[in-house]
């Protein structure tokens, strides 16, 4: 203990060699304490040790040497470890909450996508059923435009008919389909938008 008092006296007098000796004497044990609390491979353990010395050096002049100086340094180190763990806990909780919200959003989007896929499939099935009731020309033009997504110009070229004829046939075919959909019991609600 007398040895520690002498060393601290030299540190307080501004002896850089004593400061270095002080650091080398206590750093390994403080690092072990820090690693014990934070985890063996924790990259912040060394930071905690450095912070311990940063806090301790200005307070050395008030240390009364009732206990070994390492006990005092270890208390500072452990308080810093606990503070770091509490901070991580808050960050972890925040990350977990964000992750949970993200997962919920993803689940909702997945269900919505499945619902949309089911609705799309139902509309296509209804369209295919109703197309059978159309004339061959009307069924073909609906197939090219609404199912295959062809442009009016491409339909005109494919069917070798004028653009105006494509537009009027498509309008008539859609009108026929709309009337058929409206005649469907409850299945037709909203389905006419697909045509």
CATH topology of the largest domain: Rna Polymerase Sigma Factor, Chain: A
CA-atom Rg in angstroms:
39 Å
Classify the secondary structure makeup into a structural class: mainly alpha
Helical segment count:
7
CATH architecture label of the largest domain: Orthogonal Bundle
Average the pLDDT over all residues and give the rounded result: 83
Task: Kindly state the number of beta strands.
Answer: 0
Strand content: under 5%
Using the alpha-carbon principal axes, give the shape.
Answer: rod-shaped
End-to-end CA span: 92 Å
- Please give the domain count: 2
Secondary-structure element series: HHHHHHH
Largest sheet: none
Question: Regarding CATH, which class of the largest domain?
Answer: Mainly Alpha
Residue windows where pLDDT falls under 50 for at least 5 positions: 187-195
Entry keywords:
195 residues, mainly alpha, Rna Polymerase Sigma Factor, Chain: A, Arc Repressor Mutant, subunit A, 2 domains, 7 helices, rod-shaped
Description:
With 195 residues, this protein is an all-alpha fold. It folds into two domains: 2-93, RNA polymerase sigma factor, region 2, helix turn helix motif (Rna Polymerase Sigma Factor, Chain: A, Orthogonal Bundle), CATH 1.10.1740.10; 132-194, Winged helix-like DNA-binding domain superfamily/Winged helix DNA-binding domain (Arc Repressor Mutant, subunit A). Helix content is 78%, strand content 0%. It has helices spanning 2-12, 16-38, 45-59, 69-131, 136-147, 152-159, 163-183. Helix 1 (2-12) packs across helix 2 (16-38), helix 5 (136-147) packs across helix 7 and helix 6 (152-159) crosses helix 7 (163-183). The radius of gyration is 39 Å and the shape is rod-shaped. The protein starts with a helix and ends in a 12-residue tail after the last helix. The model is unreliable at 187-195 (pLDDT under 50).
